[in-house]
Structure formats: structure tokens, C-alpha cells
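Structural prep section.
Before we set up the soaks we want a predicted structure of the protein with fe (ii) ion in place, mainly to decide which crystallisation condition to try first. Input record follows.
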Amino acid sequence: MQTVSFNNMADGTPEEYQFLEELEKQYAAGLPARIEQSLEKLENSLSGYKVSRLVHSLQSATRAFRDKKPVEYVIAALIHDIGDELAPFTHSEMAASILRPFVADDLYQIVRTHGVFQVYYYGEQMGLDKNIRERYAHESWYQEAIEFCEKYDQNCFDPSYPHEPLEFFKPMIEEVFSREPKFGELAS
Ligand SMILES: [Fe+2]
Ligand SMILES: [Fe+2]
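Run finished without errors. Recording the C-alpha cells verbatim:
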């Protein structure tokens, strides 16, 4: 079978859906490579900072790695701004959604809300409530989310910080995104 025969999903046969499922699995196996390609594009995204978004991300992941954080945390740090290109108004949620099937829920929540926690560092200058993060104060992961922004995000705009190259993190990207996903589309 090269393609299915139906025009409307309701007309597909079990064999056709088995065929499509196999192709989806093969496509999913290419996820680590697509993550790497998206990270490379961050070299040319938001401007105005002293470092590119890619360098910011590499600094974030390097600092997490050097602090001996687990591999999934290092990868969360690496891709936390990967949504900048396609989700400029919801970039935290986009990165979190990519991670969600492969990491613990706490880490998913930390990435999902990092845009809110980050306001602590610039809110006053923008006339915003810097403490907006307190809306999550009752959450078990609240202190960890504060730590993420403090140590691995707001301080990662330093052109003189000696970060590791993207190549260094590729085996870790492969490891995390080749894990058996915890759930699929039906869980959301
Ligand atoms: Fe961000
Ligand atoms: Fe960031």
C-alpha cells in the first residue's frame, strides 16, 4: 500500500489505519532530528539581546548540565524557548507540550509557566506586577520553577559565558525524545 484509498476518514479500513499508524511511528522516530533543526533556527530569531536565542538556550542547558541536573532537565533547559518562532505569544506552552510525553509532570509545569516566572526579573521596568508568579505559590513545583528561571534562564544572556555547542547535547536530545511516550494525543 502506498497510500490509503479513502477521501473521508470515516471510510478507512482497519488495515489502512494500521498502515498509517506504522508510518506515524516512523515519522515520530525523526523527532530528535527535527528538534535539532528547530534549535538551529533559533540562531536567527529574536534580536536585540547580546546573544542569539540559540546561544541563550545553549547557556541554559550548559549551566543545568554543569550543575549536574538530570538529562531531562538539561534538555528542558535546551528547548525551553524553542516555541519563539511559531508561538511568540505562548512560547512556554509550546515547549512544554513538546516535552510533556517524555518528562515528569513537574518539569513539564516548570517549562509551561517559565514565561510567568520570568516576569519577576523585568516586570518592574515594564510596569508589570513582578510577583505574578505567586499565582502558582501553592504548587509543589513552585520553588523549582523559581530556581529554573533564576539559575537557567534570566542569567543566560552573557556573551562571555563558555557554553557547550549544540553537538554536545545531541546524544541527550536523542535519549529523551526516543523514550516511550507516556501518552498520546488522546490524553489532552
Ligand atoms: Fe522563554
Ligand atoms: Fe529563556
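Observations: The mean pLDDT is 96.
Flagged for discussion at group meeting.
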